[in-house]
Amino acid sequence: MKNEMLDATVSRRKLIMGIGGISAAGFFATAGVPRSARADARYAFAAKPGTAQLISEDLPATRIWGYGGVTPGPEIRLRQGDQLQVEFENALPEETTVHWHGVRLPNPMDGVPGLTQAPIQPGDKFLYEFQVPDAGTYWYHPHVNGSTQLGRGLYGPLIIEEPSPPVVDRDVVWMLDDWRLEDNFQIAENFGNLMDMSHGGRIGNWASINGLPYETFPVQAGERIRLRIINAANARIFGLEFQDHAPLVIAYDGQPTKPHPLPGGRLVLGPAMRADLILDMTGSPDQKFAVRDTYYEANEFELLDLVYGPGAVRDRLLETGVALAANPLPEPDMAAATRHQIVIAGGMMGDMGGGDLDGQRFDMQQLAEFGKAWAMNGVVAGNEAPTPLLSARLGESVAITLKNDTAWEHPMHLHGHSFRVVSRDGDTSGLGEWRDTILVDPFETVEIAFVADNPGDWLFHCHTQEHAAGGLLTVVRVA
Ligand code: C2O
Ligand code: CU
Question: pTM for the whole thing?
Answer without folding.
Answer: 0.93
